[in-house]
Amino acid sequence: MTVATQIKRGLEDVTIDEVMHHGVLACPTETPLRTVARMMTRFAIHAVVVQTVEADAEEAVGIWGVVSDEDLIRAAARGDIEGRSAGGTARTPLVIVYPHEPLNRAVELMNEQAVTHALVVSPGSEQPLGIVSSLDVARAISAEPPRPA
């Protein structure tokens, strides 16, 4: 069995709920990108959920995407921070996973979409529960595998 096969098989045995960061920090689509960067810095996080907000009710009505630290780097490299919004920077389509799914499901989707974060939502209500990141995957991979009996 190859190392890659062992790692993949190991990620099938770990649920997303076991490794995800519970809770999300969110902002409306029109939030300036510099403000998103301040949110990440203040709360020591690597991703912010971007929500569409109904103008009259000022209530979140849907998830637009996720802005990650990687997205900030891309925007900064282009000199494209000023005047840019969270909604204009958020990666879409959004990768959505469920807490009961195996971690390898999140890995496959994140790889397919070339993103570093996936939004974990509640089955049924689809309400955001947390984020699973590439660092969470690395942490799961680095764990000592059980030794054969």
Fold blueprint:
Blueprint (H helix, E strand, L loop, with lengths): L2 H10 L3 H4 L1 E2 L3 E3 L4 H11 L3 E8 L4 E10 H9 L8 H4 L6 E2 L5 H11 L3 E5 L6 E6 H9 L7
Parallel strand pairs: 2-3, 5-6
Antiparallel strand pairs: 1-7, 3-4, 6-7
Describe the protein's architecture and organization:
The protein has helices at residues 3-12, 16-19, 33-43, 69-77, 86-89, 103-113, 134-142, and strands at 21-22, 26-28, 47-54, 59-68, 96-97, 117-121, 128-133. By secondary structure, it is an alpha/beta fold. 39% of the residues lie in helices and 24% in strands. The protein has a four-stranded mixed β-sheet. A three-stranded mixed β-sheet has the order 2-3-4.
Features:
149 residues, alpha/beta, CBS-domain, three-stranded mixed β-sheet, disordered N terminus
Q: Helical segment tally?
A: 7
Structural class: alpha/beta
Q: What series of H and E elements makes up the topology?
A: HHEEHEEHHEHEEH
Shape: globular
Strand content: 15-25%
- Beta strands, count: 7
Under CATH, the topology can be stated as: CBS-domain
Number of domains: 1
Query: Between the first and last Cα atoms, what is the distance in angstroms?
Result: 17 Å
State the CATH superfamily name: CBS-domain
Q: Can you summarize the main beta sheet? A: 4 strands, mixed
How do the strands line up in the largest sheet? 1-7-6-5
Corresponding CATH architecture = Roll
Q: In oligomeric terms, what are we looking at?
A: single chain
Give helix % range.
25-40%
Average pLDDT works out at 86
- State the name of the first-level CATH class: Alpha Beta
Unreliable stretches covering 5 or more consecutive residues = 1-6
The radius of gyration over CA amounts to: 17 Å
